[in-house]
UniProtKB/TrEMBL annotation:
One of its GO terms (biological process) is base-excision repair, AP site formation via deaminated base removal. It comes from Acetobacter oeni. Excises uracil residues from the DNA which can arise as a result of misincorporation of dUMP residues by DNA polymerase or due to deamination of cytosine. This is Uracil-DNA glycosylase. GO terms for cellular component: cytoplasm. Pfam families: UDG. The active site is at D69 (proton acceptor). It is an enzyme of class 3 (hydrolase). HAMAP family: UDG. Keywords: Cytoplasm, DNA damage, DNA repair, Hydrolase. GO terms for molecular function: uracil DNA N-glycosylase activity. The gene is ung. It comes from the Bacteria. It is found in: Cytoplasm.
Amino acid sequence: MTDSPVQLDESWRHVLQKEFDAPYMKALKAFLVEEKKAGKVIFPKGSDMFRALNLTPLGSVKVVILGQDPYHGDGQAMGLCFSVRRGVRVPPSLVNIYKEMQSDLGIPPARHGDLTHWAKQGVLLLNSVLTVERGRAASHQGKGWERFTDAVIAAVNAQTTPVVFLLWGAYAQRKAACVDATRHLVLKGPHPSPLSAHNGFFGGHYFSKANAFLEEHGQTPIDWRLPEDAAED
């Protein structure tokens, strides 16, 4: 991360520059620099830190899915919530997302966990915290990222075009409590984790409801089917 978001899509740079200029973000940058100097491994790599924003420009956002922290295992985090690189085992929560998608839309589960295809269509796959130390879940919570991603959500909420918010779990629902549900569609459900998915996540029909809302408002629905060929992403 730098003082200026040099690797940030221009649409986001415009609305978030004041955040990068704020003292809390300068302190966050200093924290990350010191962690790396101390030999700690930070995920995801720097070029992927703002990947969710770069793949989904502000004006292209149709759907927002909120996560909490990046995956903290080697090779997992790629800058998109719930998503992992091809060749990495599909995480349990994403397995359950695929199960619900199959039940809802009849789409067979992908053999990989790369959600880039969704992001490029306007699905903002945003974690509340954008970095983590290897092997230490939630290690970068409370360092400033939450304030930054609050600003991201506020920018989406301010858009005149209606957006769908998929809020799975109490954390995501608190995070997006500011969203204007009179303009946007807010779909809530339990987190897809194996610990909670059977408490109401399954059967939520989130994907069909999201597409119906988009079509009702004159937008192209999301193609939730994930290509098996990476070249198609």
